[in-house]
Design a protein that fits this description.
Blueprint (H helix, E strand, L loop, with lengths): L18 H4 L13 H11 L13 H13 L4 H12 L10 H6 E3 L4 H16 L7 H12 L4 E2 L1 H5 L4 H11 L6
Antiparallel strand pairs: 1-2
Helix pairs in contact: 4-6, 4-7, 6-7, 7-9
Length: about 180
């Protein structure tokens, strides 16, 4: 189990991970600056009295049970197929790939992408109090699952194309189940 952070400034002494290693991360979550009110609370809590002792909420066995529970959440074959189609649509120069992908992408997502999309959607469903995956679960996780698995080409980068925007456009362009 690995959590990693990447600071986009002062990267001296750090090296970008190769794409094959990045692919092993479930999500790439971007944490932006906090809104002012949240930042004020952080400053108040971290510059005042000593923090309360950390109390564990669960142990390693609990984490394994959470993993097992997530895997038990049902997902329809149509939604699994949709996750596969989303990943496949990122692969340039293949049958059915949208033109804007062919024009902007050097390398698309592999098989880990739909695996991560489905597992993440199952976890999201549970966190939302549901015992089944919805199309919204898949679509909400498309950006954090795909942003580190799709490589923009030089032209797209030179044009200022953002990977998040490309993925959102892709989600809109791939037919949803039942469409």
């Amino acid at each position: 189990f690995v959590l990693a952070t990447q600071n986009p400034i002062e990267q001296e002494g750090t090296y970008p991970l190769p794409e094959a290693q990045l692919d092993r991360f479930l999500f790439n979550v971007v944490v932006d600056y906090l809104p002012e009110a949240d930042e004020v609370r952080v400053i108040q809590r971290t510059t005042g009295a000593p923090p309360e002792p950390i109390e564990p909420l669960f142990n390693g066995e609990d984490v394994l049970a959470f993993h097992a529970l997530v895997r038990q959440v049902p997902v329809s074959e149509d939604l699994v197929r949709h996750a596969v189609r989303l990943a496949a649509a990122t692969r340039p120069r293949r049958a059915g790939t949208p033109d804007f992908i062919n024009e902007s992408v050097t390398w698309g997502a592999g098989t880990r992408a739909p695996q991560c999309l489905v597992l993440g959607a199952k976890a999201r469903a549970l966190l939302r109090g549901r015992a089944h995956v919805t199309l919204e679960d898949l679509h909400e996780l498309a950006v954090p699952v795909l942003r580190h698995r799709v490589l923009l080409n030089y032209r797209a980068e030179a044009d200022g194309l953002r990977i998040d925007d490309l993925i959102r456009r892709l989600v809109e362009s791939v037919d949803a189940p039942g469409s």
